[in-house]
Specification:
The chain is of the alpha/beta class. It is built from four helices and five strands; from the N terminus they run βββαβααβα. A five-stranded mixed β-sheet has the order 3-2-1-4-5, with helices on both faces. It is globular, with a radius of gyration of 16 Å.
Length: about 140
């Protein structure tokens, strides 16, 4: 039986949402992802998207029976995610394969990998924006 662990984090800065997730199988990283969600995104929505994209990763990478433990640092989101109409079908699909899915809140400092990925996108767009202004100024 495999031990799958998924760390997810969402972030919002100036109304733009970002996410990051890291998926492990038996303590070995098997996938990670990060990206920008879009404009007008609140932090809790960004957290939900991070969980959703992380679960999609599990669906793609699942290869043998085991348990999926999902960790996030947004307590309200973790506590209510199974009630979310957008995410609950994914959870039901995974459980339908006989995979127990457990959601747990962890403090932000224990969720550093996923947090770093979400912040990587914030930094990327900040740097890209700065770089574009500099390029325009050099013409």
């Amino acid at each position: 039986m495999a031990d799958y662990t998924l760390f997810c984090d969402g972030s919002a800065k100036h109304g733009t949402g970002y996410f990051g997730y890291v998926l492990f199988k038996d303590k070995v990283e098997i996938d990670s992802g990060y990206g920008m969600i879009g404009q007008g995104i609140k932090p809790k929505i960004a957290e939900k998207y991070a969980l959703s994209y992380g679960l999609d990763s599990f669906v793609r990478k699942w290869s043998e029976p085991g348990t999926l433990k999902v960790f996030g640092d947004a307590k309200q989101v973790i506590e209510k995610i199974e009630e979310d109409s957008d995410v609950s079908p994914k959870i039901k699909q995974i459980r339908g394969w006989g995979v127990p899915v457990i959601f747990k809140w962890i403090p932000r400092d224990a969720n550093q990998l996923a947090n770093d990925l979400a912040r990587k996108m914030i930094d990327y767009f900040r740097i890209a924006g700065t770089g574009n202004r500099e390029l325009k100024g050099n013409k």
